[in-house]
Amino acid sequence: MNTIPLTRIAAALGLAACALPALAADWKPSRPVEFIVTAGPGGGTDQFARVVQSVVQKYKLVSVPVVVSNKGGGAGTEGLIYAKSAKGDPHKLVFSTNLAYLMPMITKVGYSIDDLTPVAIMAADEFILWSNADGPYKSARDLVAAAKARNGGFKMGGAQSKDTDHILTRQIEKAAGISVTYVPFKSGGEVAVQLAGGHVEANTNNPSENVSHWRAGKVRPLCVFARQRIPLKDKVAGDMSWNDIPTCKEQGIAVDEFRMPRTVWAAGEITPEQSAFFGKLMAQVREKPEFKEWLAKGVQSGMFLTGTELARYIANDKANHKVQFSQDGWLLKD
After folding, report:
1. pLDDT at position 2 over 70
2. What is the CB-side half-sphere exposure of residue 196 using CA atoms within 13 A?
3. CA-CA 20 to 30 A from 323: which of 20, 175, 205, 239?
4. DSSP label at 5?
């Protein structure tokens, strides 16, 4: 498995702009910028790209049009392969998650992360363990006890095999000493419907994917995979707020934190000035009220990384997942 040297990522990010900030102003887009979404319309990644597009256009942060195109085939790899083919073109940005660099570690996808230029992490989705509201599990401890007794017969739903939900499910199994049957669906929205209908017994959706079913009394949040409880204290469903949901560690599941970064990438082999321009653009977007409202609505963390911090995060995240993938037998051989 080839890994990206930290120095190489940093160079691609255009860190020279830190010492020579005027360089970023020397380049700007000269034709329409395409936002490539590695998912279908309506999902979280699509919403991510479109809120960035709307902010850029509303505040005229660039002088050219910004168009969004959805290329979600192959679990999002279609969009990344498309970006690979645009090598050297600074007018294309890809909106994805950390799966952009995790997928090449576990399956043959037709691109390498070396083919892209990392620009920013703009946010991170929290993850919650949910059960059906009519089910017998009132807490994560109840669920773990039942899963242990069922010895593999417990059905945990998730979005696709070897995707984010599956990765987290494997972490839960190891931390809690249980075995479950993982049932993959096409999307987090679909698995939310399946849980609400009682066709699976639990899922690990992010807040925005399950909140409408929570308000409707169809699902129950058991714990959040975070170091601290979600700080939002306004009531969401009945007399419960997000802050009333305990952490999973409080409930005896030793997973300290699990978040899914929302990532932005440019095509490979663009110049440091071009990379720096888009890093600065994303920094401007995150300060606008519309983007902050989107974060709050989706109960997402305002995680923002560029430059050396982004390079370090990617390297560490890859290293941590490589250990898990190796243990699970998912890791592709070099």
Report:
1. no
2. 17
3. 205
4. -
